Amino acid sequence: MKEIEKQIATPNTFFNNYRKVSDSIEAAKSDKPKNQRTCRFCGSKNETNYRTKAHIIPELLGAHNHLSDSECDLCNRIFAEHENHLANFYGPFNSLLGIRTKKKVPVFKSRNEQYCTSISVKNENGTPRIFFGDNLNDFKFDNDRKRLTINFKKKSFIPVAVYKSFLKMAISICPDDSLIHFESLIKWLMDVKSKHPANQFPFLLYRTRLTKMKFDKPFATLYFPSITSNTNPNFSRLATIVVHAGISVFQTFFLIDENLEIDTKDEIPFYKYPAYVHDIKTPDNCEKFEVPINSLSKLKQIILNGDKKVDYDDELIHLSFKKVRRSKDIE
Questions:
Q1: What InterPro entries does UniProt report for this protein, alphabetically (predicted)?
Q2: Which of 18, 114, 136, 148 is the most buried (most CB within 10 A)?
């Protein structure tokens, strides 16, 4: 794949090739009585299987009231396993930003390593309190610039479980009349022992970290390919979901329809959602303006095909401060 730093996309590049299908707000408007519900993942119609609230987007990305009326309790518990890995992958952002999840703002603790105390973050009244203990390896202190650089070591996660968490969100917001496109992927999602039907398809995730914008509540949007002059056979079956949470924007892709094999003769056109526009203040009464590339939000490319636990993708974050003081351990 080409280096993403050389693929700065314009908004038109994405929107000329994709059309919006639905989003988490629209999907949450459906509220069928329990005796009329059908789980879109396993097909259950038993009304006693709909006692818990199923969130379209996991609350680990932020508290919200976007609920699904087509996810049964059993499937909800199954997806919780994947979402534990998504939580570890997401890392310290809710704690740093003071974003409440299911009941409160969570306390973040980095993974334990030999001879190294884990870093803890507890948010108190909107201010993150960071405890390092005797860990002198994971931060750099610059008093002159009033800047603290911290390497937050995230707990281990299974990459494919993270990918399946985003796939579950995409299926949750997909309209009923378009679910047929996800039939093969639903079978793969629900069978823990099965392999993805397209062996050579990369589970690509784009993650943009914003510098000026913050979303207090998460939301997701599903896009299907537009009917365009794009003749690439791979693109016509490539759906994408964009998820906004905190200062992060995630985008990943899914091969849809029954034939999930990819044509290896053609590259797979992964058109990036222009998340950086959230950090740009558009001048008034201006049809065109230039934005320096160095000012764009940080974009990262991650491949999520692995099915074993990994300890990578740690978060290197720069924080400004006014003063430093000693404090007791975070409970």
A1: HNH_5
A2: 18
Separation between Cα atoms, residue 67 and residue 55, nearest integer Å: 4
Q: What is the torsion angle, in degrees rounded to the nearest 10, for the CA atoms of residue 152, residue 157, residue 162 and residue 168?
A: -120
**Number of continuous H segments (helices) and E segments (strands) in the chain:** 6, 14
d(CA 14, CA 221): 13
Query: Could you identify the residue written with the tokens 């259950």?
Result: 44
DSSP assignments along 194-227, one per residue: PPPS-TT---EEEEEE-SS--EEEEEEEEEEE-S
What residues have CB less than 8 Å from 193, skipping those under 6 apart? none
Q: Report the alpha-carbon distance of residue 121 to residue 315 in Å, rounded.
A: 13
Strand, coil or helix: 311 = coil
SS3 320: strand
Report yes or no: 242 and 249 within 8 Å, Cβ to Cβ.
yes
pTM of the model: 0.88
Domain ranges of the chain: 4-86+157-315, 93-156+316-320
Which of 229, 234, 175 is closest to 17 using CA atoms?
A: 229
Band (pLDDT 50/70/90 cuts) for residue 2 is very low
For the chain, percent helix, then strand, then coil, each to nearest 5?
A: 25, 25, 50
Q: Are the C-beta atoms of residues 76 and 59 closer than 8 Å to each other?
A: no
Q: How far is CA 26 from CA 22, 218, 220, in A?
A: 6, 14, 10
Q: What's the token pair of residue 156?
A: 């281990």
State mean pLDDT over 130-148. 82
Which 3-state string (H, E, C) describes 244-288?
EEECEEEEEEEECCCCCCCCCCCCCCCCCCCHHHHHCCCCCCCCC
